[in-house]
Amino acid sequence: MSYRRRVGSALVALLLVPAFLVGQPARAEGVLPFRDPELPLATRLGDLTGRLTLDEKVSLLHQYQPAIPRLGIASFKTGTEALHGVAWLGKATVFPQAVGLGSTWDPGLIKRVGAAVGDEARGFNKLDPAKNGLNLWAPVVNQLRDPRWGRNEEGYAEDPLLTSEIATAYGRGLQGDDPRYLKTAPTLKHFAAYNVEADRSRVSASVPPRVLHEYEYKAFQPALTARAATGVMASYNLVNGRPTHVSPELNETVRSWSADELMIVGDASGAGNISGSQKYYPTPVEANAAAIKAGLDSFTENDANGGPTVAAVKQALAQGLLTEADIDNAVRHLLSVRFRLGEFDPAGRNPYEKIGPDTIDNPAHRALAREAARKQMVLLENKNQALPLKPARTKNVAVIGQLADSIYEDWYSGTMPYRITPRAGIAERLGAGSTVTATEGVDRIALRSVANGKYVTAPAGAAGGALAADADTAGSAQGLDVFDWGGDTLALRAAANGKYVSRSGSELVNNQDKPNGWFVQQQFRLVKVANGNYVLHYRGNEIKEPWNGPNQYIVVQPDGKLAIGAATPDTAAQFTREVLVSGTAAAVEAAKKADTAVVVVGSNPFVNGREDDDRQDTALAAGQQAIVKAVTAANPRTVVVLESSYPLTGDWSGAKAVLWTSHAGQETGRALADVLYGDYAPSGRLPQTWYRTDEELPDPLDFDVIKAGWTYQYHRPRALYPFGHGLTYGKFRYDGLQASPVVAANGRLKVSVDVTNTSRTASEEVVQLYTAQRTSRVAQPIKTLRGFQRLTFAPGQRRTVSFDVKASDLAFWDVTRNKWTVESALQGVQVGSSSADIRARTTVLVRGEVIPPRDLSRRTAASDFDDYSGVEFIDAAKVRGDAVGKIAAGDWIAFHDVQLNRGATRLEATVSRSAAGTAKAEIRLGSPTGPLAGTLTVPATADHYSWTTTTAQLDRRLTRGVRDVYLVFTDAGTNIRDLTIT
């Protein structure tokens, strides 16, 4: 071949090589570029995406991504639940609930927990790769704004910093430390402003810009910026009138936080709600198109059936609502995670491949579960150093209460391989020669039908059977143990076989080990009627979606069987209630005989709120309160253990010591014994405020933490137990506080303090740093957590604890200029053992900026107001933008410190009004009742998206200098998008 021909052939060959491969290393013969691990990820993504047909790409947008055999690509499932252990796949290590992991204040421990969960997820994946996926839907970073939220157990804390530190640590553990490969791919839940279960798909969280930036986003951003998560899940609710599944924030904000391609997934049926319960778009075609445009990559719809999603997306493409480039973007996000998991690399490259099923529930994970369970326990009170108990003086222990000998899983728990209850843990710790007795302190009752005079009988045998009023006398087969879980809700356990009463069809049966299931059907209420008899009210929570019409009350059928069949108490069967065994009497008797009584009371995670089920209150159940009161009166050496998924309210003042624990998993009993007997000094700290009464709580639908007064940052009344509170067996002295006296806006606040363990007990102390800005243009938090360190101290040990805080972390979101701003101000620096137990203080000067007066001569979003009354945020358009709406007569918005220059003459506003007739808005100065400067007339428009411009002439005699400008709405139905004063 001639030289010219050789050169020409080489040029032709080069031109045939895809552009993205030019200059790349040579690869093995026959290896497709996307399978070549030596190529950059972007190159491999481009190659694989380019090889897929449009149909294949669309098929990947569903949670259950099908296999593509022609390219040797296996199926892939997004979403394995792993909140505090791998859930729903079989027996696995169950760690404390997420709120308990938050109460450890120990990111190092949480990373190890995450690593163990990631290992077990890999182990399950080896057992069944198609079903047990490596995309994990955890952690939950929604902050614990309201303790009544049903999913309180799933979050870490009410504070953004603590939440993000724990979430980042857990995510890093799940992912592993390899610089290239992921062990698993964690997904943060649920973006954003999600804290209400009641009608959750239709709740619109009205969230001002400051709260979004300073509170909501600050929980999500750090883990993504730290590359400790591979994506987020959109939440069920709407934010400011727009479903989160079509929020532009998914693409424009969330993706800006990470250097990686993020995979954004929908919650179960969440995308379907857009055209369903939310009615935001009329059809699934338009809804799915909008979601993909907004940034959603994976649809979690119709379980494993991707057909409806695929059909809707294809129709959107056919109608021009989507382009193939839109699909390519989503596919690239999805595939990037699969590449990082090592799916397309040769065997042996990913170091996590070798993890197998033997890692599940291994001895190391059991030990870690015990360590986590004891580290999350919080010592709330310890009068006269009643704890730790002395084993030699407590040979006879009574463990009393509804949780004394039970361990409960929650909805997102794994299946525990074993359960060490409080009674079992204490008995194991004390060993031979001691006596540990347990009584649940519940009444055993018998119900006798008034109509036929027969007692209700529950069948014996593990399978149970239908309850029937058919016995002449009340014996063990007629006994029903009554568990009071509060909220006027009971669970009934049949003495005949130890199984809980549930329903089968309409009949009542005793066949369940515990209250369980998505619809918890083991819930009842005994209602006393006027004649002193009782009716039985079925309270299974599927009555929200009636399975049997309006009937909720129990009747006795002609054959004597109990069934759900009456709509009202008046038409229900009546029963007499006889107490066969008094729970209180049994508890008191056990307490009097014991050296020490340990009362374990609290919540049941399936009854006392969870996903789709908020709480109405936080009160400890009245029946359990009565046991606490009776036992503390009977035995002055009583310790109360509060085991719950959320803060409780109640009176346990008679106890010598009070401990709180979350539902802490399989090792709860051993961990409790470790703490009670001083084998481990408690060191957990509360991750959220325990309010004194529910009356102090704002409305659950008020998401404005600043104005409503949520959390330790803004709640002024004294708490029952404050954020960060927790006692230990050591004693600590703080002294020698030093802080940078002056800090530049681009500088760092450096703080150090000497902490000394002045006791003879080795303990851990959680040293907490707070700041409090003294002056500001806006309402500032009472204080804000800026750092924390959990440290171990030997007896007498002194340590210098240092913090280094960026001055930019002291910034707040300035709505006048839509940016983060560090103000010039004095900052109080506080170091202590809780938000209320401050041991050392000083003041520093931060040299930032002084915010100038507002300039409303530039078009200003109405949502960027400084203060308001009554109004809510709505969507200005389907795609993006906020406005102010849902206005009632008398509502107002205010813009503070407005520079009116030489006398403003006109206010121009963009408004809409879907109601008939015109409306008025008064422009007042100084206050909502201040001088009237002008009146705005708002005409009717087609709907709230039909914006029009209206103007008001202003009184030049009033509009001079710097003034607070109020828009006071005299009529309901107005919406306002923006305004300008000229």
Defining key terms:
single chain, 982 residues, TIM Barrel, Rossmann fold, five-stranded mixed beta sheet, 27% strand, GH, Exo-alpha-(1->6)-L-arabinopyranosidase, xylan 1,4-beta-xylosidase activity, hydrolase, alpha-L-arabinofuranosidase activity
Q: What is the topology?
A:
Blueprint: H1 3-16, H2 41-51, H3 54-59, E1 64-65, E2 76-81, H4 98-103, H5 107-127, E3 135-137, H6 160-175, E4 185-191, E5 204-205, H7 209-225, E6 231-234, E7 238-239, E8 242-243, H8 249-252, H9 270-275, H10 284-294, H11 307-318, H12 324-340, H13 363-375, E9 378-382, E10 396-400, H14 422-430, E11 435-439, E12 443-449, E13 455-457, E14 468-471, E15 480-484, E16 490-494, E17 500-504, E18 507-512, E19 524-528, E20 534-538, E21 553-556, E22 562-566, E23 575-581, H15 583-593, E24 596-602, H16 622-634, E25 638-643, E26 657-661, H17 668-676, H18 705-708, H19 711-714, E27 732-739, E28 742-744, E29 748-757, E30 763-773, E31 784-793, E32 798-806, E33 812-814, E34 819-821, E35 825-832, E36 838-847, E37 860-861, E38 867-869, E39 872-875, E40 882-885, E41 892-899, E42 906-913, E43 919-925, E44 932-938, E45 948-953, E46 962-969, E47 974-981
Parallel strand pairs: 2-3, 3-4, 4-6, 5-7, 10-11, 10-24, 24-25, 25-26, 28-36
Antiparallel strand pairs: 1-2, 7-8, 9-26, 12-15, 12-23, 13-14, 15-16, 17-18, 19-20, 21-22, 27-29, 29-32, 30-31, 30-35, 33-34, 35-36, 37-47, 38-41, 39-40, 41-46, 42-45, 42-47, 43-44, 43-46
Helix pairs in contact: 2-12, 5-6, 5-13, 6-7, 10-11, 13-17, 14-17, 15-16
